[in-house]
Amino acid sequence: MGFVFELLGVSPILDVFQHQTFRQHPQGLAYLSAPEAPLDPFLESARQVSPDHGWNVDQAVDSVIRYWLRNAEAVHHWQQRLLESGRECLLVARLGDEQAYRNDLNALLAE
């Protein structure tokens, strides 16, 4: 099973909390957030959520590392946005298996 990781943007802490608490997420997707922008918090988050979803931890972590290495400009962009936004915001990312991403996209297109 392949995994997809992507940085989504910067959001106020309260919005992230409400999104994670009240919105139902498609099975196979996890939303990760960190108050800082280095790679380590996202690796740790991937390690923590993978067992809950029945994912292979190494494959999920590898997808985060691959994204970080292949998308240096995007990573830098979001790191800068996070610095500019202040202490009340988090950098938000999404991690999931490829099938969950397809299902989520199909659901969006069907709306």
Secondary structure elements and their pairing?
Layout: E1 3-12, H1 13-22, E2 29-34, H2 39-53, H3 57-70, H4 72-85, E3 89-97, H5 98-110
Antiparallel strand pairs: 1-3, 2-3
Helix pairs in contact: 2-3
Question: Can you tell me about this structure?
Answer:
This protein is an alpha+beta fold. It has one domain. The chain has helices at residues 13-22, 39-53, 57-70, 72-85, 98-110, and strands at 3-12, 29-34, 89-97. It has a three-stranded antiparallel sheet with strand order 1-3-2. Helix 2 packs antiparallel against helix 3. It is globular. The two termini are 27 Å apart. The relative contact order is 0.29. The mean pLDDT is 87.
Q: Element order, helices and strands?
A: EHEHHHEH
Q: What is the share of helical residues?
A: 55-70%
Query: What's the average pLDDT?
Result: 87
Please state the overall shape, judged from the principal axes of the Cα atoms. globular
Identify low-pLDDT runs.
none
Given helix and strand content, the structural type is alpha+beta
First CA to last CA: what distance? Answer: 27 Å
- What count of structural domains? 1
Question: Based on DSSP secondary structure assignment, what is the total number of beta strands?
Answer: 3
The order of strands across the largest sheet is 1-3-2
Kindly provide the radius of gyration, computed on alpha-carbon positions and rounded to a whole number of angstroms: 14 Å
Strand content: 15-25%
Major β-sheet annotation? 3 strands, antiparallel
* Count of individual helical segments: 5
